[in-house]
Amino acid sequence: MEHLNRSTLFLVFRLVPILSIPLYLFAWLLVTRNKSKVVQAVRKHFLRQMLINFISVVLLCVVVCPILIPPIPGYYMTGLLASFDANYDTNVAIPLVLMTHVVLMVALAIMQLFKHQLVTISDLRHTRKFELPVKIIRWLYKICYLVMILVATTILPALTIEFELEGFRKGAYEYFQNPVCLCPDMFIADPRHWKILVPYCWSITFGALCSITGLSSVITCLVIIYDSRKMVSRETLIMQRNFTLSLLYQALVCIVFIVMPLASVSTLFYTDIHIEEHGLYYLLLISSQGAVNNMMHIVPGLWRKLRKKGTADQSRQSWKNSSMWSTSVSNVASTAC
Asked: Which residues cross the membrane (predicted)?
């Protein structure tokens, strides 16, 4: 593991929380100063989501900082928790349980925004045409919450697997011929054991279900907004459309930066596939989710600032031209007299 200290990719991964602080602060500033009624209604949701995202980044990159060695089923801790474990001999399965619950909190924060927009749009433009689709999607949200509870519950028995499968370490060492299997900072367990297999299956189900529910919710909102475009003012229509498109961006970021990397990494442990750089590419994707997600606040905020500045400059130039025209007319009139 000494070569990791010389790895540029590993250094960038460790510095992700520090590098992303300006983006979080800038996004927080734009959200708190946004006067839009649509944003003000969900301001607390946005700020809570930023806080959860940043906590997850710190936990992943600083506290745990896991190193993956597929196809060896487990992870090697190199963060602050590894130093704490060396002094107090903590359970190496704690990071797995902790990160699972934090990822669930990130997903919950996103789902709450989606559900809020769906309920708001459907209540404002209530028509029988969309009554059934909205009812189905709201039931899907309830199923998502139920599956989320199942994931959070079924991962807890993993805390005891270290004591039951101590012999699996020796078997893994003999099979993979890698001394890291015997390291006390390495969490390693049989992926076919029910304490690992059951939460894995529920996690895959939760990720797929959340992706389907989120995309369906956003698409339904866009269809409702388009169908009722003649019922509201153009300004309200544009605000609601832009906000719904920003939620669509969030859904795609969640799928690309969380669901797909986690599904890929967890599936690697069930296949005899080796990956380069100890899975740091996957971990970088996951840790960058919050910073990329903040762009939904930063880009529109900068665009509004530039547009206001351009409008102000244009108004100022028009005023100067009118003043010059008035002055020239006065001069001509004076000369004529």
From this structure: 12-31, 51-72, 92-114, 139-159, 202-226, 247-269, 281-299
